[in-house]
């Protein structure tokens, strides 16, 4: 994601926000938030920071998929806008190597939510990822509102092209396939940020796909759009909630506001009550892909307002992502899971455009970069780089 372009847009958004009108929105009262359900279904949405029934979801998975010697494979994909090309290249190369596993759980944030759907569905959908992340330009994602229409909008950009692309790509056939895989115990989880509560919402897309109605199909698509809704730039997504016969709306934006990447709910303790073998998990693999840089990178400073704010926001996002990866690493090592981590390192010799949010030429380079790293066996790290002195706290419970 091009921070300079985003910064300029956001400054304008803040300046004009006092003039904008508000769309119809009836928020859930705080005292009713614990009763908020989508389609009155407890299995559609979980919170990222509490147990809230998610152990029942894991139990559902284990009952269908566990057997002696079972190897569990988790895949977590971060946000990053057009940088999703990196994870797309990795997945395609993984397929070509004929060593790509069937993932038991796939999670995604922002652009990672889009990649996650097709990573979950398997090799036959690799071509969809290739097209999405090597041929996309700004015009395929958004149109700029004119200065006068912005006054009546909740975002600076009109994402009708992105909405059309998502709704055309996520066909009823694809949702049917997601539902079929969910019935086998495989999980597809996507994160968005619930603005009212300032919390990560974890959406169980398999459960949504199982409903099989036009309304549920729209919700599936809306969750993907919400997970990628950059605040201020892209419009937030409203999700209808019914409580005691009254309809309310929750407001959701980019999952990257609360997490750059996630794999496990924060309440997971790994105390032997998750998998039926109640023992060591050397046969479990956690794969984490960060669609962007991970290590600090030097940039000669400029004494200007735009540079200071732009560089600071970029650094803030990078270190949030580092913390999120470290959180996954600590949980994985505490459970004796094998940790595998990929990120865009300094060996990428092509710079992204400063004028575009989605630059197909750069995305193609990033796609091939991820593809070649995967095939060269130089991709995966067994610890987050820069944290190599960390000793795993195997007895620590989270």
From TrEMBL:
Top-rank taxon, per record: Bacteria
Lipid metabolism is among the record's keywords: yes
Motif extent (DGA/G): 254-256
The keyword Lipid metabolism is annotated on this UniProt entry: yes
InterPro entries named among the record's database cross-references: Acyl_Trfase/lysoPLipase (IPR016035), NTE (IPR050301), PNPLA_dom (IPR002641)
Motif (GXSXG): 108-112
A Pfam family of this chain: Patatin
Annotated coiled-coil segments of the chain: none
Catalytic residues (positions): 110, 254
Motif (GXGXXG): 79-84
Swiss-Prot/TrEMBL keywords: Hydrolase, Lipid degradation, Lipid metabolism
Domain PNPLA: 75-268
Name recorded for this polypeptide: Patatin-like phospholipase family protein
Taxon lineage: Bacteria, Pseudomonadati, Pseudomonadota, Gammaproteobacteria, Vibrionales
């Amino acid at each position: 994601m091009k921070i300079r372009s985003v910064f300029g847009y956001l400054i304008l958004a803040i300046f004009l926000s006092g003039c904008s009108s508000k769309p119809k929105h009836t928020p859930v009262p705080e005292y009713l938030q614990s009763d908020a359900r989508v389609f009155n279904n407890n299995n559609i949405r979980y919170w990222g920071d509490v147990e809230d029934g998610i152990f029942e979801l894991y139990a559902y998975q284990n009952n269908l998929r566990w057997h002696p010697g079972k190897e569990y494979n988790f895949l977590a994909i971060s946000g990053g806008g057009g940088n999703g090309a990196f994870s797309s290249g990795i997945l395609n190369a993984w397929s070509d190597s004929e060593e790509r596993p069937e993932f038991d759980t796939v999670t995604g944030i922002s652009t990672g939510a889009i990649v996650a759907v097709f990573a979950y569905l398997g090799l036959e959908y690799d071509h969809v990822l290739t097209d999405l992340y090597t041929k996309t330009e700004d015009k395929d994602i958004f149109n700029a509102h004119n200065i006068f229409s912005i006054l009546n909008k909740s975002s600076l950009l009109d994402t009708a092209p992105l909405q059309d692309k998502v709704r055309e790509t996520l066909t009823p056939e694809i949702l049917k396939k997601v539902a079929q895989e969910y019935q086998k115990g495989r999980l597809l989880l996507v994160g968005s940020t619930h603005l009212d509560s300032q919390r990560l919402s974890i959406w169980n897309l398999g459960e949504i796909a199982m409903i099989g109605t036009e309304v549920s199909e729209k919700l599936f698509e809306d969750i993907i759009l919400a997970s990628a809704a950059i605040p201020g730039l892209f419009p937030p997504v409203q999700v209808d909630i019914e409580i005691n016969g009254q309809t309310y709306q929750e407001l959701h934006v980019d999952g990257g506001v609360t997490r750059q990447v996630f794999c496990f709910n924060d309440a997971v303790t790994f105390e032997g009550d998750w998998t039926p073998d109640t023992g060591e998990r050397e046969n479990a693999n956690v794969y984490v892909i960060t669609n962007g840089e991970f290590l600090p990178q030097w940039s000669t400073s400029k004494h200007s307002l735009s540079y200071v704010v732009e560089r600071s926001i970029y650094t803030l996002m990078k270190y949030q992502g580092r913390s999120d990866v470290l959180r996954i690493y600590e949980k994985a090592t505490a459970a004796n899971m094998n940790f595998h981590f990929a990120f865009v390192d300094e060996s990428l010799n092509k710079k992204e455009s400063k004028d575009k949010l989605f630059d197909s030429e750069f995305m193609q380079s990033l796609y091939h970069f991820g593809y070649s790293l995967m095939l060269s066996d130089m991709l995966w790290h067994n610890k987050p780089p820069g944290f190599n002195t960390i000793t795993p706290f195997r007895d620590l419970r989270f």
